């Protein structure tokens, strides 16, 4: 339905997006992941026709939208990172304004406003001013505005950043319902891996302007099929013991977390025994351990050298 072909964008001498090839089938929910500065938002801005590519093409149903951007604007809804609402207007007034901008017919505009308010769970608050809403409620209205014209493709750029758990859950439920029940094609970026795992059938991972991996969750996890993740807790932790573990044979990555130390190693290595021995030499005890199958977060870390929130 929608594809990018060798898509690139330069700002002066800096190449921010470098030859991106992506596609979205009709009705798919696709994740776009990458650390800060990877080029995700610039890619989204080009797809939604807000930025013109330096080179490459974007096609909708086989037709180029770089030369004719109005075609994508009729069928796409974009939920940007920044709240794009009028604070001094009510939720209802904002949705009426955006509905008119999207050229929703007057005869169906009122019903559509009520439908999208119902979707995001704010029908009872529609007459209140946006400036009185919490951050999570504003983001829900932001999504509602992007849905006014019943877009075939919905692009969401980190829609749950800095919001309360109730609003976050409501947003995830809304996106899932739009995709599964209404057949809306979704492109979703987030700093929360669990959201992408819940919502997306396929995932693209970007870093330094390039797509460095793509596929279904199963296909991406197969990248680490020969590796194992171990989470250990020690009686005490220091930079020295972390460096010692990092130097053990077959250890691929070591990271200190809130739960202790997370180690990715070769699957067949007897890594736990090696960690216990290394700790004992330093007079430190392993107080708890857990062996885990690598997650998408581990794949991301393996490919980019960073956690998703970095």
TrEMBL record:
It is found in: Cell membrane. Its main location: membrane. Coiled coil: none annotated. It is a peripheral membrane protein. Residues 2-233 form the ABC transporter domain. Keywords: ATP-binding, Nucleotide-binding, Transport. SUPFAM superfamilies: P-loop containing nucleoside triphosphate hydrolases (SSF52540). PROSITE patterns: ABC_TRANSPORTER_1, ABC_TRANSPORTER_2. InterPro entries: AAA+_ATPase, ABC_transporter-like_ATP-bd, ABC_transporter-like_CS, DrrA, DrrA1/2-like_C, P-loop_NTPase. One of its GO terms (cellular component) is plasma membrane. One of its GO terms (biological process) is doxorubicin transport. GO terms for molecular function: ATP binding; ATP hydrolysis activity. PANTHER family: LINEARMYCIN RESISTANCE ATP-BINDING PROTEIN LNRL. Belongs to the ABC transporter superfamily. Drug exporter-1 (DrugE1) (TC 3.A.1.105) family. NCBIfam families: drrA. This is ABC-2 type transport system ATP-binding protein. It comes from Oceanobacillus limi.
């Amino acid at each position: 339905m929608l594809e990018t072909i060798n898509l690139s964008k330069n700002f002066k001498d800096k190449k921010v997006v470098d030859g991106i090839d992506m596609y979205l089938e009709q009705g798919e929910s696709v994740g776009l992941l990458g650390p800060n500065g990877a080029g995700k938002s610039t890619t989204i801005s080009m797809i939604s026709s807000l930025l013109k590519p330096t080179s490459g093409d974007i096609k909708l149903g086989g037709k180029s939208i770089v030369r004719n951007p109005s075609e994508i604007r009729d069928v796409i809804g974009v939920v940007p990172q920044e709240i794009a609402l009028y604070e001094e207007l009510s939720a209802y007034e904002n949705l009426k304004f955006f509905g008119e901008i999207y050229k929703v017919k007057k005869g169906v505009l009122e019903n559509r406003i009520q439908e999208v308010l119902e979707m995001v769970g704010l029908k009872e608050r529609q007459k209140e001013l946006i400036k009185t809403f919490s951050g999570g409620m504003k983001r829900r209205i932001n999504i509602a505005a992007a849905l006014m014209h019943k877009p075939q493709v919905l692009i969401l750029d980190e829609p749950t950043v800095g919001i309360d758990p109730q609003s976050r859950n409501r947003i995830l439920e809304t996106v899932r319902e739009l995709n599964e029940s209404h057949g809306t094609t979704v492109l979703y970026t987030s700093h929360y891996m669990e959201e992408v795992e819940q919502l997306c059938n396929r995932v693209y991972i970007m870093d330094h302007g390039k797509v460095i991996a793509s596929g279904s969750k199963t296909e991406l996890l197969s990248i680490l099929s020969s590796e194992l993740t171990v989470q250990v807790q020690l009686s005490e932790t220091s930079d020295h013991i972390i460096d010692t573990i990092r130097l053990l044979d077959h250890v691929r990555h070591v990271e200190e977390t809130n739960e202790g130390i997370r180690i990715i190693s070769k699957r067949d290595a007897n890594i736990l025994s090696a960690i216990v021995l290394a700790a004992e030499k330093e007079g430190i005890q392993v107080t708890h351990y857990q062996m885990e199958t690598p997650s998408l977060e581990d794949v991301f870390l393996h490919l980019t050298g960073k956690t998703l929130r970095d």
